Structure formats: C-alpha cells, structure tokens
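To illustrate the input format used throughout this study, we show a single complete record. The first block contains the structure-token representation of the backbone; no residue identities are included at this stage. The design step must infer an amino acid for every position from geometry alone.
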C-alpha cells in the first residue's frame, strides 16, 4: 500500500525551508529587521534607514476618510483628533495646583478662571459649589 509518511515529511520540509527563507528575507538589507535592531547611527541608535518617500504613518491626510474607527485613548489612529481639550485642561489644573502649593493665590485664581472659561467654551459643565 501507499504510505503518507514520506509525503508529510517532504511537505513539512518544504514549508520549513520556505518559512526560513521568508524570515531571512525580512532580516536582510538596510531596511531589514537586523538593521533596525543593530546599533548604528540611525533612529534610536539603530542602523535602520527610512526611505525618502516614506512618511510617518500618522502624518498627512486620512488615508481612509470613510472608515470611522473607535476613539481609544491608548491607540493613535490617523485622522482622529487628539485629546487636546482634555490635555490642556489637565495642564492648567497641574499649573494651578503648583501655584497653590507655592502660595501664589492670585496666579491660582487666574488659572482657575482660565480653566472655567476654557471648560465652558468646550462644553464641559462645572459647578464650583459642588464637592465630590
């Protein structure tokens, strides 16, 4: 009868050799993984060189304007607005807290009014009488 053992062995060898060839192709050259991880004069101490025509993935126009992705805090997606409003409010809050810690009450009051105005302009409701 006909045994499938040699066929399976040959198929496994062909797949293994093909996979290793593909991995080696990813490692070779000045744009390969080896160059990226190697110490050198490129980005972050690597020998990797960026192509001149290659742009940053998040710069420029949205490549798929019709595709709306969920807005996640921990993922940068091309075409999505940054959380600039929340970041600015947090920065002003930190400045206000530092001013209070240093005893600069007038500067803290100015920052508080700036924060309240900014919050109202951007649709945030704030009631200073509520504590929580």
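Output of the design step:
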């Amino acid at each position: 009868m006909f045994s499938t053992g040699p066929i399976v062995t040959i198929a496994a060898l062909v797949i293994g050799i093909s996979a290793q060839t593909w991995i080696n192709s990813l490692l070779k050259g000045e744009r390969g993984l080896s160059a990226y991880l190697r110490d050198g004069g490129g980005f972050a101490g690597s020998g990797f060189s960026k192509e001149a025509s290659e742009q940053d993935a998040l710069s420029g126009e949205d490549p798929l304007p019709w595709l709306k992705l969920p807005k996640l805090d921990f993922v940068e997606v091309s075409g999505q607005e940054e959380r600039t409003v929340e970041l600015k409010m947090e920065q002003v809050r930190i400045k206000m807290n530092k001013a209070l810690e240093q005893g600069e009450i007038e500067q803290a009051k100015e920052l508080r009014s700036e924060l309240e105005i900014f919050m109202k302009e951007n649709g945030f409701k704030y009631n200073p009488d509520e504590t929580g």
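Structural context for interpreting the output: The chain has a mean pLDDT of 75. Residues 5-27 form the longest helix (23 residues).
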